[in-house]
Structure formats: structure tokens, C-alpha cells
Please model this.
Amino acid sequence: MLKRYGGQTVLFTKPVGIMAAASVVGPKEGEGPLGTQFDRVEKDPMFGAESWEKAESEFVKTAADVAVKKSGAVMDDFEYIIAGDLLNQSTGSIFGLRDTKRPYLGIFGACSAMGEGMSLGAMLVDGGFASKVLCLASSHFCSAEKQFRFPLEFGAQRPQTSTWTVTGAAAVALGSIASGPAVMGCTTGKMVDMGVKDAHNMGAAMAGAAADTIAAHFVDTGRSPDYYDAIITGDLGYVGQELLLQLMKKKGHDITHKHRDCGIEIFDKDTQDTHSGGSGCACSGVVFAAHFLEKIKRGDINKVLFVPTGALMSPTSVQQGESIPGIAHGVVIENV
Amino acid sequence: MLKRYGGQTVLFTKPVGIMAAASVVGPKEGEGPLGTQFDRVEKDPMFGAESWEKAESEFVKTAADVAVKKSGAVMDDFEYIIAGDLLNQSTGSIFGLRDTKRPYLGIFGACSAMGEGMSLGAMLVDGGFASKVLCLASSHFCSAEKQFRFPLEFGAQRPQTSTWTVTGAAAVALGSIASGPAVMGCTTGKMVDMGVKDAHNMGAAMAGAAADTIAAHFVDTGRSPDYYDAIITGDLGYVGQELLLQLMKKKGHDITHKHRDCGIEIFDKDTQDTHSGGSGCACSGVVFAAHFLEKIKRGDINKVLFVPTGALMSPTSVQQGESIPGIAHGVVIENV
Model:
């Protein structure tokens, strides 16, 4: 019998526990409002490596180690590792996890990686294919700027709609728990293309996908925004948040007082010069792991719809005149 | 209760049917030994598009349409689409599938994409999360050469160890069937790094991963090569095949008479100037869909271990002196 609850949504009969989560970030993230909440703030953005790409892999490796240690398990206990990042051919994840010697499933969902990974990981556990799955997502400001935009040395001026790629990595260990935060289901997103072609305005490119997934979740489950204590998107930033709230109102849902965005939480707009907010695969991952998951554990919030958002583009696709489709994957997390 | 059979392997209690598969290829593939077996040979490698990247997306779109049509279902019946390719940020898959309006899970496993996709897709069906999943993989000789090696116009001489990236896309529709070929389980691969740094010798970089996954499958299941009528790797080519057979003998298994490689099957070495063979995400996908799946349907072979292989690298990682880890995902297919 299908476990589906509706068009895009799966709800589990048995919660999939979040055993532990880890957040490892760079110095700028450490100076932000959540600075004291991360597991580790690495002062050297190169993390002792020879290149930004290799540094990103060091963040990944460290986040994996920290999450496994916090979970009380060992790496060999995890039947699958699921990981994704923004680098060409996902080398941030690959070289960070090369030595784990665990079955490896690479994903690409741009900055929605943690949403896609947690959804797949939870389904693999609920389906009986694994007892434990480790999900990772990473990004690095310098490797992303180099690959997607301009050489850092060029000192290009950034428009106010642009976001700042978070340097760091997050890891979430899924498995069984006696009590605490657990994944209760997921709403897998469709690609939504709003026709945005401005690679410096990812919030606008992703807002439509976030609205589509959140609205689909309500239709599938019969729930309303009232059900949740918080609806947390990945990296829409200030520009994307405004659009999301408008789009949701058009769809008949006012989520104004429930909405939080990881990209807005991670930096101080007034003092950190990050314009529309934070972004990158690590953004939703580290803010969830360090901040929101702890709030759930404390009981400050109990029911959360976590919706990492991704802008699906490459420099080549933008140069060839393509618009930027967005995608957003919803993960239901509740205290059990 | 866990459905696992061993360290890296899942065997399903109920087979996951292969409803249909599609293969759409370019002109060079059409001129090869399997030319008459593909669903469609597109004579224009640009597929009417303005760029090689957009052409690759046209191959993806067409393969999806053909597979869905052959399956007797409609696109809206598929609860998930899982797709991967080699292009930066997976734009081959993304722009090819943007208009499907189905929940989308992007993957990255380099040329192992069809193995990773079919494994995940079959688990989602067996786990009760979907009734139908569409899995895709694509590559394009021209987009791959441009991105990974030299501009085509440069006319670089290719070493004899190099392989020729297959132009095309494959799609496999998983769901329920009354009888015929079905996915019975999967062995998810670990990254295996043999220390190979030569990006013109992918066969050598991947052979260790293929041997690791095949040997793990035998350990996990207690089976020997005798169980299978064919053990089919993705794109090891002639160089990689020789290494795989040697490595398997060292592990105590002689698979010489069972082994087939999609990269060897797709081109005629003597007349097509493809050196060590074919490669690319499409290679294993289209050869499986057009050739081996049909052989299973006819009962020529009944039990198959299909092992798409991937070389995990980017031009940046190679330029920075990194070696090339390999990965291989095993999929068990039997006539039921």
C-alpha cells in the first residue's frame, strides 16, 4: 500500500529520528547573530588547505565527523551517505567524503541539497533500507564566487538583490531515537521557472518554487499554516521573502507570522554587508542544525516545515540566456 | 525490520518492474553496432538547439517522452523523476525536465547516474513512496569535451586510453508489471580511489570501484558469478575491462565469461576511432535500454547484475592535482 498522503507528499507512520546534526562554518558566519550556536567556527576560511575547493571539502569532512560523534554512532554504522554541493561535479562533497568508505549517493539540487538529502534519507530509513543515514550539504563563499560570478580579486560591486554564499558544511544524522526531533514526512518539490534571468537575484528565482512546495504541502495534507510553529525556507533572503509572502497570500495562505528564512537569520544585514542575506547549500543546513533544531529540542517550537530552496542554473546556462528554475523540498520535523 | 541483505546490498521482497525504457542517441551511436536497436537516432547532434548544452537537454526531454509513452502511463502518473548528467550543475537534466511539473530529485554520480537513479527509484517504489518513478541519465560528446577537455576546434589528439563520450539520453520507467524484467535489489557503491590522476584514463580510475561493488555484492548475497547470466559494467572500456577482470581474480572471482561493458558494446573500435570505448552517463543507460533489457525480455539472458560506473572528478580537481575516485552502483535485474 502506498504511504503517500497526496500529490507530492509522504507522511511516515513511524517518525525518523534526528540523532544529531553538525554545523561547521567560516569566520564571517561566526561573527553573525548565530555565531555562538555553531558547533565549530573555523577562523581560517582556507581550513589549512591549498585551494578554496579543497577548503570546502575540509568543512564537509569536519561536519561529517562532528555529526557522527554527536550521534553516538560510528561512521561504519551509517548504511548511506547522501551529499550535495554547488561545485562543478560536486567535488566539495566527493573529496570531503572520499575516505568514509560508506555507500555514497551524490545529489544535486543546488541550495535545496539539505532538503533533498533529508527527504531521501528519511525515506530510506522509513522504507527499511537503512537504520542510519548521514545527510550533508556544503558551500564556500570563495569557491562559489570564483565559479559562478567574478574572481574575488576583481572586487566586483554586488547588487542589493544579491546574497552572500555561506562558507560551511552541515550534517544531519538520521536514525532511531527515543524522543526528540524527528522527520515526519516530506513534500518533494517540482521545478518552477518564474522567468528570472538575473543570476544576482536568486531570491526572486526561488520564491515561486518555495510557494509552490509549501502550498502543495497544505493541499496534500489538508493542513494550514496554523499547524506549524515555523515555516523555514533556505536562502530566499529579504527579496525572496517578500515575494514568497505575496505569492502565498495569492494562494490563500498568510504565513507572514510563521515564516523564517535561514538566509535572513545567519547574517546581520546592517553590519555584515550581505545585502539580501545568506545563501548556498550550507546556509539552510547550518542554520537548521545550529539554531532551529536546538529550538525544537528545547520545545520553543515543536512543529516545523523546513523548506530548503535551490536556484537551478550554471554560468553556462545563464550566459546562453536561460532563465533560472527554482526548486524547494519540504521536510516536516516535529518533536516526538 | 531492515530489508538489507548485507553491508551494501538491499534485496526486495517484491520485484520492482521495469515498465519501459527509452534510448535516444546521436548519429555516431547510430552508426555503431547497436544502431538499429535504439528507439531513436537523431541525425543532428545539435537536435535543432542553439548550443551543445541545450542539445543535451533535448535528448533528455525526448528520452523522457519516449519512455513514458512506451510505459503506457502519462507523465503525471510518475511520483518522482530522478536524473543526473555530467554538466556543471546538472543543467542537461534540469532544462530537459523543467517542463515535466513532477517532483524532481537531481543526482550526481558522474557516469554511474543510471545505476544510482535506478537504485533510488526502485527503493522509493519498494518502500511504498511511489507507484512509478522515471530515472534518466544523459551525456553529449560535444558538451563534455568542451567542459572537461579541449575545445573541439582545437583538434587535440586523444590518447588510446581515452573513451568517447556517448551523445544521448536514456530513461527507465519503474513501476509494477505483470511479468518481465524487474529490479530485484541494489548494491550501492563506495568511493574507491586507485590514485589515478590521468583524466584521459577513466577506465583505470573506475575499475577498482567496479570490482569493489561487484565483490561486495557477492559477499553480501552469498552469490557467485555463476548466479548471473551477465555482469554488465557502464563504461570501463577495453582498458578498464582488463583491469576489472584482473582485480576480480585477485578477489577470488573469475567473471571473464560473464562480463560485458556498455562502453565496449556501443562503438566499433576498428572503424569508429573511439579508442578504449564509449563513456558518459548515457553510455550505460542507452546500451542497457536498447540492448540488454531487450535481451532479458527475450529470455536470452535472465539474471543480470548491471553496474554503471562513474569517475568522480572535475577539471578543477584534476588541475589541482587530485586523483580520481571511482564509484559503481550495482542493480540486480531478473525476469519475473
Summary: Chain B has two domains: 17-175, 181-335.
